[in-house]
Amino acid sequence: MRRIHNLLIFALLLVFSSCKKDSEELLTWYKVYGMGTNIDVSVANNVDYNWYIDQYYTGTHWNVNCGPASVTMALKWELPFFNRTTEDARNTYPLDGGWWHTTDIVNYLNLYHARGRVIEFNQEEDLLAELDLGNIAILCLDMYYVRKETKGEQWAIDKFYSTENPESGHFIIVKGYKKVGNNTLFEVYDPWSIDKRYEDGRFMGLDRLYRSEDIMKATNVWWKYAIVIYPRTTKFAIPLALPSKQKSFDMTNIPNQKGR
User: Fold this and answer.
1) Whole-angstrom distance, CA of residue 26 vs CA of residue 40
2) Along the chain (260 residues), what's the average pLDDT of each consecutive run of 10 residues?
3) Is 169 helix (H, G, I), strand (E, B) or coil?
4) Where are the beta strands (DSSP E) in the chain?
């Protein structure tokens, strides 16, 4: 009789454990935030190697190196064998250790013959169209207007850090998006991880989801443009900066802005 009783308890524990596991597996960020029950559209312009950079590990001026980090990420994405570092970018345009500007981003991309263009970013669709073509973009925006997460950092949605004051210019990479119901979220590489990681060791700035309405507001008040980078059609990278009369990126008649 005792044996039957023990077996019954064991069976109940197994059922409880299985139900708990199923419940945890069904819990997703879009359900936690009440956005919907499924991801309707998902675009992620990834490559099969690591190209994320946490600016925390970028030398003396790490706390203002979002520009050098973002442009280096973009070049690593476009050119598989690009081996220049964020420090190399900073040393190319030192600016006395100050904030980088959008012109510095464009000049550095042109230096290595990256392909792309600068577009006006007035509505969500402007950026979605570029992402649908397989492109990525560098944005310069005021992170004060991107909300901070409220339901836990582990869901990778919204900022995981605080921005206390407006006029907090920052550079990020946008590499994809997700649509859930009426919600659009841009998938970004935010270089401001500052060595903060998820339990599995991934940087928290990696594949972070920022809401479209936040991105739009943050760019509208800071810099209403996007620096779009095209994927390289050949696998062979240009290892060194070479002189060229042809420049893909043109900032003529486009206002300059800065980020850190």
Assistant:
1) 16
2) 51 46 67 94 97 97 97 96 96 96 97 96 97 98 97 94 96 98 97 96 97 98 98 57 65 93
3) strand
4) 41-44, 100-101, 116-120, 136-142, 169-180, 183-189, 208-211, 225-229, 258-259
- Residue labelled with tokens 């064998």: 81
Closest by CA to 173, choosing from 196, 207, 148, is: 207
Burial 174-191 (b: 16+ CB within 10 A, else e): bbbbbbbeebbbbbbbbb
Instruction: Please choose, from the candidates 191, 209, 192, 194, the residue with its C-alpha nearest in 3D space to the C-alpha of residue 153.
Output: 209
Residue 69 is given by DSSP the state H
Could you identify the residue written with the tokens 């420049």? 247
Classify burial at 134, counting beta carbons within 10 Å of its beta carbon; exposed 0-12, middle 13-18, buried 19 or more. Answer: exposed
Q: How many CB atoms lie within 10 A of CB 29?
A: 20
Residue 166, token pair as written in the block: 């407006």
